Amino acid sequence: MLREDTVFGPIHSRRLGNSLGINLLPRNGKLCNFDCIYCECGWNADGRGDREIPSRDDVGAALRKKLTECSESGIPIDSITFSGDGEPTLNPEFPEIVDTTISLRDSLYPSAVVSVLTNATRIGNPAVFEALLKVDNPILKLDAPTDALAAVINRPHGGYHVEDVIRGMERFEGRFVLQTMFLKAPGFDSSAPGVLLPWMDIVRRLRPREIMVYTIDRETPMKGLVKFTAAEMASLVKPLADEGFEIQIKG
After folding, report:
1. What pTM was estimated for this model as a whole?
2. CA distance 152 to 156
3. At 173, phi and psi to the nearest 5?
4. Which of 26, 92, 122, 170 is most buried, most CB within 10 Å of its CB?
5. Residue 52 to residue 37: CA distance in whole angstroms
6. Beta bridge partners of 182
7. Residue 79: phi, psi to the nearest 5?
8. Is 99:105 a contact under the CB 8 Å cutoff?
9. 14: helix, coil or strand?
10. What would be the CATH architecture of the domain defined by 7-250?
11. Boundaries of every domain in the chain
12. pLDDT 10s digits, 157-177
């Protein structure tokens, strides 16, 4: 289980290069409205020991310190990335923290992009939506094409409807990155026609500027999950690539 400081790294990311992470959630716990079977942070139940959420001031001070240290040491940063131990948009000051982060990036690391990894459950919130439009890479997750399949792989808390999320994504008018995990698990197989074909139809409906297709890279809370190779994933999404979609594949 990963437990990250408020600002951590930079670390090498398969998808984002040299990435400086921002964790808007508890440093010694986990807070998420998904409980994904593949989450590298472990099950939600294993992360309940800490519920302290950093404030905008906390994040700003930690980020300024880290960016200054990296700049003085000549450490490259490709992306300043909101990730961490759960869903970053659950932090009540998320929109304000995005503004602070962009301001610090502009002054200290203007060549870096700002990225947000989100499960897209809160894009219906106007302030969250507007904040995501401001960042360079709003990376929105959609692993399953139906509510029933999302219940198997993502195990969402509360009301979650894939169609609602799709409609929220449509409001970005393609100005986002769609992120999808490919794996095999009991009751779920990304390569099965009943999963893959409707997912591809959703991609065609949304027309994101880029698609990130990836698979398991670290230990997962549910055992027995099976990853795909990069070649297998490339074959599965070839129809979309042939149609001109920009697809990043990480095995």
Report:
1. 0.93
2. 9
3. 50, 45
4. 26
5. 24
6. none
7. -140, 140
8. no
9. coil
10. Alpha-Beta Barrel (3.20)
11. 7-250
12. 988 999 999 999 999 999 999
